[in-house]
Amino acid sequence: MESIIELVSITNSEYHAEKDHVSASRLKTLKKSPLHFINYKAMEPRAEFTIGNVFECLILEEDKFTEQFYILDDRIVCKEIGGKNPRLTNKYRDWKSQALKFAKGREIISHEDYELVRNMLDQFDTNREANRLLSAGTVQPSIFFEYNGVKLKTRPDFVNQAGGVIVDIKTTSAEGPEGFQKQMANLNYHLQAVMQIEGAKQAGIDVQHYFYLVAEKNAPYCVNLYRLNEETINFAYAELDELTTLLKECQQTNQWPGYEHRADNNHGILNIGLPGWAIK
Asked: Which tops the pLDDT comparison, 214 or 136?
């Protein structure tokens, strides 16, 4: 696929099936080593991902919920089986095997997790600024573009072209801005953000603001908007430059080293010692 500098409307499955361009998830692995990058495999769906997917869907495209998700409600069968761990019984396994046939390929969310999402949505409804930002725009457009000689792709959750606004929706167990900051750093959210910003700019959008809409998964289910600051965006651009330069070199030489690429010598030998905190 050639680089397409526009907002493309394709399904999530079609986006992930396209392999000519590098996603943020894959580029993040290059921070470990080129060897990690070349052996990248997309993460299998997990319950915490489903919670986020359902939350996004019910905010952005509620009408598509039933075609994308299936609620596994086992309250009645668990009550019938009784005991401390009804889900560990053969009767429950048989019931679940039959119940999952109704899913027909849809993503599965438990009744408990669905109720959790509903609590988060109740708080979202009280955030007038978040509702205003999401009132007009494009939902999950795909952008295929080139940066520093490397083909990249990105899929922001929401783009308000007229306002020059990108909104990325996150669900988290972290508490408050301090907790979310740590999650940002640990999961390299800034790299994902700068790829969305650059892709949108190349698609002709004058990006003015990048927001995280963050919903906490623990009571009282706070939902807040965080605006990504310029210092972090500039840092992310510098990191994107570094990573794409490294990737381009690896592609040209077809050499995909492990941690030895961090060595300060030609032998790939890394110096190591106790961490600073251990010798204080």
From this structure: 214
